[in-house]
């Protein structure tokens, strides 16, 4: 599903009006009708009749005017609260305000604190609240009377339907630095917006419906400059590699995982097991020789390889040479899970990042080893996939986590271009970006994944899919989706609280089967 920025949506609207000669009033009428339809559906569940519609002065408010008029026509008890003076309205919004007046729908202007309190009182006794205050172009923090009303909407305990975007949410980033509407449902128009697929905006939007308002589909493909898509099961299924009936294990991909250190053997083991469970035919785990025995106990199907170690039983500089030689026998290297940040190990990791000539998936301490040395990413000739969580991304970019999280798509896209690598920015609404500017937002996963080891599993998933012939970007997208999809299966079958990384590994084959079979 294509995702557009507010600027792109504005240009799509203009192209529909100017190029396709679709009147703006027609588009607004269609938008308002979609909102009214969703409102009727929500009210049918409760049997309620009272609706309070909160409108701003822009086109978002105009959509609210249309919805209010149509609901009033259908016999609902509708009250409109206008967060501006009528003289501030213009264009199609002003036209639909006049139509509202002609249909005798009650409108109250909210221009004082007392009027805002009156609106809050009505919100508390209404059966449905419709938020049409701010649209997709909003940025910054809500202030003044709008803030008072939004906080009243949220505290009312009544169901809320948002128009296009919950008011207070940045349509470009999903950020909500101040008060923002908590909607049960959002009707957005023509295409999904970036602010609806990134958190906290995605959470505040509730259930999102993309309504067709008559904009030709061709414009949704022709106008946007960006290449941003939301990935669901249907899109992910198209990426899955096919397996030949007579395939043998080497044809199904071979992965070398390198990692592990005292206290962190689990991370390396998880990554290796996840690679096998994601379809790789052969997986070997390279670990410091002093940890080899414990890995033999931990793992059955995964083969192990002892590597030279330091006195602290971490990988030594000599291990880098041995790993480089081993890479000639494998399709993909996954480096980093449980590696440690001891000095000699860090140097070995940097050397491998720069010199290994097969596709590399870099995670955890492999990423930490490159902080301050990210120029080595550009020195590589083979594909590179980086899988940082927000903290690791902040360290790599020499910024802070707040800055990373404030614009996750922009951060991932810029980093991918800067480092000439595929970047997987983990977290709710995982973002995968390519050096060419492609962005995919992953539509799977749940809060139960907030537990240790999940990132190691993701590393194994991506490495396995890359070993089976997918390009680095597609492997990262498919790996991230099916990693989250397996977690969703684990949550539905076993419960979300208490989920561990091993539960996700256990469900990976079923996730991949369900994806392909559509069951």
What does this structure look like?
This protein is of the alpha/beta class. The protein folds into 2 domains: 15-222, 3-Layer(aba) Sandwich (Rossmann fold); 247-517, Ribokinase (UDP-N-acetylmuramoyl-L-alanine:D-glutamate ligase). Helices cover 45% and strands 16% of the residues. The chain has 21 helices and 19 strands. The strands form 3 sheets. It has a 10-stranded mixed β-sheet with strand order 10-19-18-17-16-15-14-11-12-13, with helices on both faces. Helix 11 (292-298) links the parallel strand 12 (282-288) and strand 13 (303-307). Helix 10 (265-277) packs parallel to helix 21 (501-517). 54% of the residues are buried.
- Assign the structural class, choosing from mainly alpha, mainly beta, alpha/beta, alpha+beta, or little secondary structure: alpha/beta
Q: How widely separated are the two ends?
A: 21 Å
**Stretches where pLDDT falls below 50 for ≥5 residues?**
none
Helix content: 40-55%
Number of strands: 19
Radius of gyration: 26 Å
**CATH topology (fold) name of the largest domain:** UDP-N-acetylmuramoyl-L-alanine:D-glutamate ligase
Q: State which percent range the strand residues make up.
A: 15-25%
Global outline: elongated
Q: Please tally the helical runs, counting DSSP H or I stretches of 4 or more residues.
A: 21
Number of domains: 2
> Which CATH architecture of the largest domain?
3-Layer(aba) Sandwich
CATH superfamily of the largest domain: Ribokinase
Widest sheet, order of strands:
10-19-18-17-16-15-14-11-12-13
CATH hierarchy, class of the largest domain:
Alpha Beta
């Amino acid at each position: 599903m294509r995702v557009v920025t507010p600027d792109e949506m504005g240009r799509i609207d203009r192209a529909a009006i100017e190029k396709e000669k679709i009147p703006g009033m027609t588009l607004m009428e269609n938008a308002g009708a979609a909102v009214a339809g969703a409102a009727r559906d929500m009210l049918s569940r409760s049997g309620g009749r009272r609706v309070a519609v909160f409108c701003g002065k822009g086109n978002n408010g105009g959509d609210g005017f249309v919805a209010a008029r149509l609901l009033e026509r259908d016999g609902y008890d509708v009250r409109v609260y206008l967060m501006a003076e009528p003289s501030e309205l213009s264009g199609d919004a002003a036209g639909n305000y006049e139509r509202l007046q002609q249909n005798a729908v009650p409108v109250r202007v909210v221009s004082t604190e007392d009027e805002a309190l009156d609106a809050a009182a009505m919100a508390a006794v209404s059966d449905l609240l419709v938020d049409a205050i701010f649209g997709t172009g909003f940025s910054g923090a809500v202030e003044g009377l709008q803030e008072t009303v939004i906080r009243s909407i949220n505290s009312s305990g009544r169901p809320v339907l948002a128009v296009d975007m919950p008011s207070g949410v940045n349509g470009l980033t999903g950020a909500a630095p101040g008060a923002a509407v908590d909607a049960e449902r959002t009707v957005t128009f023509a295409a999904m917006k970036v602010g609806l697929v990134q958190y906290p905006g995605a959470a505040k939007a509730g259930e999102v419906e993309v309504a067709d308002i008559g904009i030709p589909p061709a414009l949704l493909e022709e106008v946007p400059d960006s290449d941003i898509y939301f990935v669901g099961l249907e899109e992910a299924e198209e990426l899955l590699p096919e397996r030949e009936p007579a395939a043998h294990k080497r044809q199904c991909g071979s992965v070398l995982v390198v990692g592990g250190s005292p206290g962190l053997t689990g991370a390396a083991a998880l990554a290796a097991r996840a690679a096998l469970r994601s379809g790789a035919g052969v997986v070997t785990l390279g670990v410091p020789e002093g940890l080899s025995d414990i890995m033999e106990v931990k793992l059955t199907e995964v083969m192990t390889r002892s590597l030279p170690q330091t006195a602290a039983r971490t990988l030594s500089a000599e291990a880098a040479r041995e790993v480089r030689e081993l890479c000639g026998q494998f399709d993909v290297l996954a480096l980093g899970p449980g590696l440690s940040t001891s000095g000699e190990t860090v140097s070995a990791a940097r050397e491998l990042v720069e010199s290994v000539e097969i596709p590399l998936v870099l995670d955890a301490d492999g990423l930490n080893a490159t902080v301050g040395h990210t120029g080595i990413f550009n020195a590589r000739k083979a594909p590179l996939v980086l899988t940082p969580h927000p903290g690791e991304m902040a360290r790599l970019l020499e910024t802070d986590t707040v800055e990373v999280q404030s614009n996750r798509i922009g951060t991932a896209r810029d980093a991918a271009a800067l480092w000439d690598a595929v970047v997987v920015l983990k977290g709710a609404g995982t973002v995968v970006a390519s050096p060419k500017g492609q962005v995919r937002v992953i539509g799977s996963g749940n809060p139960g994944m907030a537990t240790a080891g999940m990132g190691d599993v993701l590393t194994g998933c991506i490495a396995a899919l890359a070993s089976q012939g997918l390009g680095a970007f597609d492997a990262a997208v498919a790996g991230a989706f099916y990693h989250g999809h397996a977690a969703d299966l684990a949550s539905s079958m076993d419960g979300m609280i208490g989920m561990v990384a091993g539960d996700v590994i256990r469900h990976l084959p079923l996730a991949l089967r369900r994806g392909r079979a559509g069951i």
